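Dear Dr. H.,

I hope your travels went smoothly. While you were away I took the liberty of generating a structure for the chain from your last submission, since the lab meeting agenda had it listed for discussion. I wanted you to have the full record in hand beforehand rather than looking at slides cold. The sequence, exactly as received, is reproduced here:
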Amino acid sequence: MQQITLISTGGTIEKTYDEHAGTLANRSSVVQEMLRLLRLEDTTINTMQLMSKDSLEMTDADRERIIGAIRLIIGTKEDPTDCTGVVILHGTDTLCETGNAIYEGIPDLHAPVILTGAMRPFEMKRSDALQNLTESLFAASTFDPGVWVAAHGRALKFPGPVKDRSRGTFVMGS
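The corresponding predicted structure, in token form, is as follows:
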């Protein structure tokens, strides 16, 4: 049985449309709605809404909160919890900054930590949100320990991934 914890931080993947203001913003999590659409055999998903921010507004203190949450969720190598993997929903603009911070901040990971986001919100047509969430949950249940970004049919291990704005996806930096 897989026990995956999904940490929600906001980002485009969770933005919702406010018809009164005519804007997209991080107001409330859509995680449960996305999870209801998936069939997950032998997998328990625990969710944690850590924050609800656009990643461009994330600070180093926010990244430290994420690192602290991961440490709490997975425990230590000597005293691990039942969590077998972590998925972090994150805005794509600074996802790689957070991935690098986790990579440097928790060098002895004993579970996979998968970051993902979306170029278009879950609520919009042609969104990549559900695909990226599905891929991330699969990665969290099968990958080796480490920090990864999963999106658009591939996973890249930190350090190294960067967002390629022209392609609208993540690639390995040069």
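Two observations you may find useful: The chain has one domain: 2-172. The first helix runs from residue 31 to 36.

With kind regards,
E. W.
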